[in-house]
Amino acid sequence: MSILNKKNPLLSDIKASIEKILGANSQSISAVTTIDKLRQDILKVLIEYSDRVPHPASGAKHVKESISGTLARWQILAYVSGIDLTIAKWFESHLDSLSILHELGYDDLEQGLWAIWAAEGHPDPIHYKHGQARGTKAWCSGANMVDHALMTYRDDNNHAQLLMVNMQQPGIKIDNSKWHAVGMQATDTATVQFSEVTASSVGPANAYIERVGFWHGAAGVAACWFGATTYLANYLVIAYQNKPNHYKAMYLGEISTALAVTQQYFYHVADLIDNQPQLSHELVIRQLRSQVEKVARQTIESVGQALGAAPFCRNSHFARLSADLPVFIRQSHGAFDLEKIGELTSVLAWEVTEGQSHIWQL
């Protein structure tokens, strides 16, 4: 089914609200020049809508049309990502935090911007005892902006644990000095040091990484990658319509095929998640993420070859997406992800029944 036929009333409302903000700033999505104030205005509107965005694996109960809750969520993330990946990074983390807490039984939450910070490996790791957190967390996007953070740590038994921290309290030091990125430069990504800060433990040991929603959320990140990719590809559609030629048509055909296949896989995975919400669907979601990374890199390269240097130099929206997307897709883990896909594929092959000779048999 075409994406144009999958109606999402909430997305329509969000689009209308954001286009109103852009109109007040005399801008359009296709030529938006995002400044800090405009980002904050758009993010504020998105936060106001966030309690209406379906959680992953929520089926169709949150939407009035014949669209799954999971797909509705991904459509919103993809739309926001096409506008600006910095906003998408903040909003995806906010939504993921709310869904994590929902899955773990926490629904009565304080208002404001939330974030999930799960990167580990800092030499001064987070420690938690008697309601107090100390240590350092790296790769914290939106560090100076968020009101509440979820962050992981390892307890004395090396179990993964999750903490909830109010960021508006003393004892928190934010250091942006190590963030030298060009792509995703504006994400306010910092190293945050906590000194005996009040925090609350969330869920039992390993609940964060063992819950099925861990992988459902990982697919939401891929929706962000895909949304930005499709906006870049649409620049080639417009260029071809305005001035058609054979090589633009060839690149457009190549990209269109890759995007259409990937789009259909999003539909498939969304249906799997909503119809079998008790399963993580790790293999298909890892495959989805790998496919989106591949098509994103292909699109960046092919659109650049088709259009030349002009949009990189004269269109701020195109140039920013092209710079941000390669950094954002590095949330994929490349060869490690492919290794895990291979291992999970082998396990699945052992389980094939009903007379199939192999797992890819039609």
From TrEMBL:
GO terms for molecular function: oxidoreductase activity, acting on the CH-CH group of donors. InterPro entries: Acyl-CoA_Oxase/DH_mid-dom_sf, AcylCoA_DH/oxidase_NM_dom_sf. It comes from the Bacteria. Gene3D superfamilies: Butyryl-CoA Dehydrogenase, subunit A, domain 2. This is Acyl-CoA dehydrogenase. It comes from Psychrobacter pasteurii. The lineage of its organism: Bacteria, Pseudomonadati, Pseudomonadota, Gammaproteobacteria, Moraxellales.
